[in-house]
């Protein structure tokens, strides 16, 4: 009955792992060839694959796990999806309903353990509940502000038989969808932007989730407003656009931060305005007279920054509603745009190439050159993530996937596999550090088994680079537990899984290694041995305001 | 009452996970429950919670907004600062047999035994507090206080 319901929901892939408490589901899986099950090597890998799948195609990622440790291994993956508003449905097996609460074998309180990292969750103890619950779960996961929904199903329910009912109506009295855009507020917002002397737009993940990239660009151009993105909003606005401010936040570009700190009107679309965006909140955007906030989740209004104009709505609907009201642009706008161009000249992204060691930016510039504005890039967490974000160079909107909110190391590789399942038509690059990669490297089996054409760009600095950089700069220079020694030979590791790989230590070898990767059909890993002292710049020292960003030393 | 206290009437689904989810949302956001009462609502399958919540360092309206995000929560009414009827109940056993001054305050005797007298009293928060102070003078054996139930006047 569960599998039939999943077919009805249009599920194509399930990422999962069987065990004692979900055996009845797996018993019937072979009878449903339309449901393609990907056997992972660890449940966390399943969660990240489903997450990457969902981010790449917009359809909900589906996960199976057994009770106890199986379900608990999903927690980090659920949290990652929850923080970044990714639609997922996780179906976990639970012990027989009469055993619940008796500390049965592999029993754990999965609802309790996951309720803070799911949008909603259900414990199903009676078969009659199932059709409604599964239908509701997909609805809740994919609508409004998306997020993971967990269904914990007792084993006896999985085995029970009941009359097949197809739920056609949804009645969820406690689930409200915000969609209505008040035209008068949209007008107010559009006029505030048009009339502003020094306006800025920042776009977050919500713009990508609601496919509002076109409307965003139209609005930015119509009202002549410089536009940046958050880390998760990367891809929402073309980086090479003349109005682009690139990435904001405490590792954002210098010209973005100067623009934000000098803006008189700041519009934030589909974003949470968290501490990584604002740095020291008290000093955030101090000259702003009018904050405009668009988000589909009303609880974001005033959670961190209190807006003067708020639109609780889907980003695309809100931006579309604003477009007709974009009026004549303030006459001083030319001066503001010229100022931003000057800041862009003054604070370019740069990196040190002097010491002869391989620089991560050299690698990424070559990778992006080959991406032709269309490859999906999945980054892990740490320095690799920020380098991949800052050197993103797409002319048109594109997909940059990473764990922004939760900052989950080990996310990128399984998520990249999930993204490839979702979008076999697009090249998929996975950028990761060696620290994060080994956290979920067991999923190499999945890459090889399914011949997934995912190219892994390992930025290997033999250390936990971001932690090392923070220790150097903000924690008294004490390097504590950041040296990653005794790591595997990654070329041999891949060989053990039957996958080609290559090590690159010199600048001249970057191109040929990428050529080899691109010529190979199926997974390929390049172990780039980069400068272990390479740092992320710009960076705002911890606890400081955005004004106080440090830049890369001039080479 | 602290100026950080929000008073809310919350209509929720009667489900096994509802209370944990409500209390989880409150804990996660750094709020603190100062008073709570739960009882069936007039609609079958629903319960009505009355909550007094300290919103800590968050904006005051975050309490309502965070509760509204829960699927189990059907409706949240923020009653803070509004004219309301608010009642708390206290049931107390005192050693004294003579409780006339408690009765004068409006208490009712529920039981009279050789060990003492059991009384009940309801009123607003402060009245109940004063009543409990008064009880001390009669030798409290046991006392049970409820959280508030609150309804908008108009």
Report what the structure shows:
The complex is a heterodimer of chains A (555) and B (154). Chain A has three domains: 2-159, 3-Layer(aba) Sandwich (Rossmann fold), CATH 3.40.50.970; 183-346, Rossmann fold (3-Layer(aba) Sandwich), CATH 3.40.50; 360-543, Rossmann fold (3-Layer(aba) Sandwich), CATH 3.40.50.970. In chain A, helix 17 (383-390) links the parallel strand 13 and strand 14 (400-401). In chain A, helix 9 (183-195) packs across helix 14 and helix 11 (213-222) packs parallel to helix 14 (315-322). Chain A is 36% helix and 16% strand. With 154 residues, chain B is α+β, with helices and mostly antiparallel strands. Helix content of chain B is 23%, strand content 44%. Chain B has four helices and nine strands; from the N terminus they run βαββαββαββαββ. Chain B has helices at residues 18-28, 62-68, 100-104, 125-136; strands spanning 5-13, 32-40, 46-54, 73-78, 84-94, 108-113, 116-123, 140-145, 149-152. At the A-B interface, strand 5 of A face helix 1, helix 2 and strand 4 of B.
Number of domains of chain A: 3
CATH topology name of the largest domain in chain B, in short, is Alpha-Beta Plaits
**In the CATH hierarchy, what is the superfamily of the largest domain in chain B?**
ACT domain
Our count of helices of chain B gives 4
Given as residue ranges, the uncertain stretches of chain A (5+ residues, pLDDT < 50) are none
* DSSP helical segment count of chain A: 23
- Counted up, domains of chain B total 2
Tell me roughly what share of residues is in helical segments of chain A. Answer: 25-40%
Task: Indicate the low-confidence ranges of chain B by residue numbers.
Answer: none
Summarize the amount of helix of chain B as a percent range: 10-25%
The third-level CATH topology of the largest domain in chain A is Rossmann fold
Which structural class do you get from the secondary structure elements of chain A?
alpha/beta
Content-based structural category of chain B: alpha+beta
What gross morphology of chain A would you assign?
A: globular
DSSP, total strands of chain A:
18
Q: Tell me, rounded to a whole number, the average pLDDT of chain B.
A: 92
Q: Report the portion of residues of chain A in β strands.
A: 15-25%
